[in-house]
Design goal:
single chain; Glucan_succinyl_AcylTrfase; 0% strand; Acyl_transf_3_dom; mainly alpha; transmembrane helix; 70% helix
Length: 408
């Protein structure tokens, strides 16, 4: 079994998109974020909408695949302990010392706090509630902001591994084998049908909060792809079928994405009366949800298929980038918010300000990762890396384990 370099590469691409997306959040119109520039860019919304419909689902899908690859070598009990360490320690560290700068910048921009960052950090580390509205999550005494992915991933991992332990104890492994062979049609159809149900029933009732508790729509769409990734990770028939369908999946994703954007544009540009003359409101909602579901599912499958076709090859940059993904993920949003906080008062305009925010973010990630995190043994686990750099594995299963543990 050879290493799945495509999963590594797709993860790196997904997190690169995440950095661009969060820079865009500073400038997109009408989307809330921890800091907003007065230099808003209306055009940014359109590519962000396309990416937003699948970007986080892709990360959970890849995490499920990574877990599926490593399950062949480690018991669920051992993986629970390992994953808890690799996810919860960086989460606690990030909440305590990485995210607070976002809260401080947000409060300063809102005018709800006027002291310096040192005073803010000392107050924040007391974990006492702040006055509501001071910053996002102030009423809880702390915030995890972009690090919400880590507790969600930990919860899904815990649930899946506990379920697997129970299934193994009662002989349920046969069902998993049937599902990835003769029952493959369920793998192709259940996730999008479940997502459509979630859009219809859960999305209107449970808006996205990233608070873990009560965030039912997000749990519905993210857990299903995480479980799907776990099931198909080592299924050769699935990957063969996926490669065979890659062209069809690409066209379906492009076509449904264009149609979804077109309908969204119609809703933005047509007067309400003209919009409703064409079709009743409930019918419009049904059409949009169905098309969004098709786009979500075919985009995810197309990304897997074309990555397996084009990116499954080793490279030096990929080995380096795969290690850098986790530290960059932890650092990037705090650097974005801090850079925007510094640059907004300079009134640099719609070109230079976002470019400099992006440049400062990337430079900061490179320098902090390369000069500090990679080289200081005790610092590495705080950013999700092993205490010492791993030797380059030679067999797929060893490398798959390395991939799976380089979460997120």
């Amino acid at each position: 079994m050879n290493r799945r370099h495509d999963i590594d590469a797709l993860r790196v691409i997904a997190f690169a998109l995440l950095i661009l997306y969060h820079v865009g959040m500073v400038y997109v119109v009408d989307w809330g974020f921890h800091i907003k520039s007065p230099t808003l860019l209306a055009w940014v919304e359109w590519p962000m909408v396309l990416v937003n419909r699948w970007r986080m689902s892709l990360l959970f899908l890849l995490a499920g695949i990574a877990l599926g690859l490593v399950l062949i070598r480690k018991s669920p009990a051992r993986l629970i302990g390992n994953r808890s360490w690799r996810l919860l320690l960086p989460l606690a560290f990030g909440i305590a010392l990485i995210v607070p700068v976002q809260a401080w910048c947000e409060a300063r921009m809102l005018g709800t706090y006027d002291a310096g960052f040192g005073s803010s950090l000392l107050r924040y580390l007391q974990l006492r509630p702040w006055p509501a509205g001071t910053f996002t999550g102030a009423e809880y005494g702390f915030t995890w902001n972009h690090l919400w992915y880590l507790p969600y991933l930990w919860l899904y991992t815990l649930l899946v591994l506990l379920a697997l332990a129970v299934l193994r104890a009662i002989g349920g492994g046969r069902f998993a084998g049937w599902l990835t062979t003769r029952g493959r049609w369920l793998l192709w159809t259940v996730p999008p049908l479940w997502y459509l149900f979630a859009l219809w029933v859960l999305d209107p009732r449970f808006p996205s909060t990233h608070a873990l508790v009560g965030d039912w729509f997000n749990h519905a769409r993210y857990f299903v792809v995480f479980a799907f990734g776990l099931l198909v990770a080592r299924s050769d028939p699935f990957w063969s079928a996926l490669l065979h369908k890659r062209v069809r999946l690409l066209w379906l994703a492009v076509g449904s994405g264009a149609l979804y954007l077109g309908l969204r544009a119609m809703g933005a540009w047509l007067p309400d009366a003209a919009y409703l003359e064409l079709m009743p409101l409930d019918a419009w909602r049904t059409v949009v949800r169905v098309i969004q579901t098709v786009y979500w599912w075919t985009a995810l499958l197309a990304l897997l298929a074309w990555s397996a076709r084009l990116l499954d090859r080793p490279s030096t940059w990929l080995r380096y980038a795969s290690e850098a993904v986790y530290p960059w993920y932890i650092l990037h949003q705090s650097l974005i918010v801090l850079a925007a906080y510094w640059l907004i008062p300079l009134h640099l305009g719609a070109l230079w300000e976002p470019l400099l925010v992006l440049a400062i973010t990337i430079t900061g990630c490179v320098l902090i990762h390369e000069l500090l995190i990679r080289r200081i043994g005790w610092l590495r686990p705080l950013f999700g890396l092993p205490m010492r750099a791993r030797m380059q594995p030679t067999a797929r299963l060893n490398e798959a384990e390395s991939v799976a543990l380089r979460v997120p």
